[in-house]
């Protein structure tokens, strides 16, 4: 049994990770400032004797005693990370510095929740981990993309300079229960619009592609990576590629919705294609997604039906 800190643990992915770590027998400290996270996400474990919830902002130093740290604190949806872009940079950069400082002091293992956004609007397809990316450093998404890139830089500097036990997961689009209704991410947007019978809004012509990983698969990948010896960045995502238009039609059909599909202008720096190359995850941590899109969408739709009652 280890004592594990999950920053951003009250959020969408973090709450599923905390539940998994409790189920695995660990002591879990969840740290969150509740910017996009909610106590309700932790209902199933809130009173568990091995679980503790701490309100804290990662831009401030951490003084906790733990063996492992999963650093997830950072709003993931453009609507939230752009609402206060300077704070997003601080969360990424100061947050990384503080978890790394704590990990150095405690000789703890530390995993960074990085992102496929480090590849920007990729010119290589699918994206392997050795692709350096194509990122606009001054655009409206830069606070997140560049913030995450600097965080990775810091992780590798701590590895080289202090021999820290680092792990870096580059997470691709993940979806599932507990995504926020209003955060503008494509799966939750479409499901909520379909259930309300409102028009489904597609940005651009809908031919841009994405890959969608169900949250349970992703959590399995994070845990396996933490438990491995791999210090290289590892892509975690589902390589099955769908156009946004396909996704919209699938969700309309699965919800038996009468929603029509509306097309709006494409936002700035929106990547055309995004699909992980997961060869490294397969060989190094023996991981690949197991949950098909229809199955994951079924669970997500069931969650939103209940949450929107
Ligand atoms: N969901 C995805 O598709 C995806 C893809 C790539 C990377 N990621 C990364 O995974 C992590 C979790 O994403 P998510 O989808 O669960 O997002 P989320 O917004 O649901 O969760 C982020 C959590 O971090 C907390 N937080 C934000 N700023 C904080 C701060 N300064 N101090 C303490 N807590 C803070 C929020 O309150 C929230 O609970 C993020 O780091 C995100 O960048 C997610």
Q: Mind sketching the topology for me?
A:
Elements: E1 3-7, H1 12-23, E2 27-32, E3 51-55, E4 68-71, H2 78-83, H3 85-106, E5 109-115, H4 142-162, E6 166-171, E7 174-175, H5 186-196, E8 200-203, E9 209-211, E10 213-214, H6 215-227, E11 233-236, E12 241-243, H7 244-254, E13 261-264, H8 279-285, H9 293-307
Helix pairs in contact: 1-6, 3-4, 5-7, 5-9
This protein binds nicotinamide-adenine-dinucleotide.
Which keywords apply here?
309 residues, alpha/beta, Rossmann fold, 13 strands, globular, binds nicotinamide-adenine-dinucleotide
Order of helices and strands: EHEEEHHEHEEHEEEHEEHEHH
Report the bound ligands by name, code or SMILES: nicotinamide-adenine-dinucleotide
Q: Provide the CATH top-level class of the domain at 3-174 and 215-236 and 275-289.
A: Alpha Beta
How many helical stretches?
A: 9
Mean pLDDT: 96
Beginning-to-end CA distance, first to last residue: 39 Å
* Count of strand segments: 13
User: Compute the gyration radius: what is it?
Assistant: 19 Å
Overall spatial form: globular
Low-confidence stretches: none
The major β-sheet equals: 7 strands, parallel
CATH topology of the domain at 3-174 and 215-236 and 275-289: Rossmann fold
Helix content: 25-40%
Q: Which range does the strand content fall in?
A: 15-25%
Q: Your description of this structure?
A:
By secondary structure, the chain is an alpha/beta fold. The protein has a domain at 3-174 and 215-236 and 275-289: NAD(P)-binding Rossmann-like Domain (Rossmann fold). It contains nine helices and 13 strands. It has helices at 12-23, 78-83, 85-106, 142-162, 186-196, 215-227, 244-254, 279-285, 293-307, and strands at 3-7, 27-32, 51-55, 68-71, 109-115, 166-171, 174-175, 200-203, 209-211, 213-214, 233-236, 241-243, 261-264. The protein has a seven-stranded parallel β-sheet, with helices on both faces. The longest helix has 22 residues, at 85-106. The protein is globular, with a radius of gyration of 19 Å. The mean pLDDT is 96. It binds nicotinamide-adenine-dinucleotide. Nicotinamide-adenine-dinucleotide binds next to helix 1, helix 3 and strand 5.
């Amino acid at each position: 049994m280890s004592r594990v800190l999950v920053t951003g643990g009250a959020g969408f992915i973090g709450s599923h990770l905390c539940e998994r770590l409790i189920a695995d027998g660990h002591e879990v400290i969840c740290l969150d400032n509740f910017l996009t996270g909610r106590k309700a996400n932790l209902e199933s474990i809130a009173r568990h004797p091995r679980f503790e919830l701490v309100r804290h902002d990662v831009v401030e130093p951490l003084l906790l005693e733990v063996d492992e740290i999963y650093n997830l604190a950072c709003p993931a949806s453009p609507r939230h990370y752009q609402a206060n872009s300077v704070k997003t940079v601080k969360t990424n950069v100061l947050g990384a510095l503080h978890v790394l400082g704590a990990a150095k002091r405690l000789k703890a293992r530390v995993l960074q929740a990085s992102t496929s956004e480090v590849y920007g609007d990729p010119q290589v397809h699918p994206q392997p981990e050795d692709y350096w990316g194509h990122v606009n450093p001054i655009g409206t998404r830069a606070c997140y993309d560049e913030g995450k890139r600097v965080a990775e830089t810091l992780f590798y500097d701590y590895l080289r300079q202090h021999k820290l036990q680092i792990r870096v997961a580059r997470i691709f689009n993940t979806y599932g229960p507990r995504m926020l209704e209003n955060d503008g991410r494509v799966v939750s947007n479409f499901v909520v619009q379909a259930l309300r019978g409102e028009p489904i809004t597609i940005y651009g012509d809908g031919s841009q592609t994405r890959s969608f990983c169900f949250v349970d698969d992703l959590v399995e990948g994070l845990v396996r990576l933490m438990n491995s010896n791999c210090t290289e960045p590892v892509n975690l995502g589902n390589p099955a590629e769908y156009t946004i238009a396909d996704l919209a039609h699938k969700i309309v059909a699965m919800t038996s919705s009468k929603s029509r599909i509306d097309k709006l202008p494409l936002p700035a720096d929106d990547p055309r294609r995004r699909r992980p190359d997961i060869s490294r995850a397969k060989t190094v941590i023996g991981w690949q997604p197991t949950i098909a899109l229809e199955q994951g969408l079924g669970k997500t739709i069931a969650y939103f039906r209940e949450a929107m009652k």
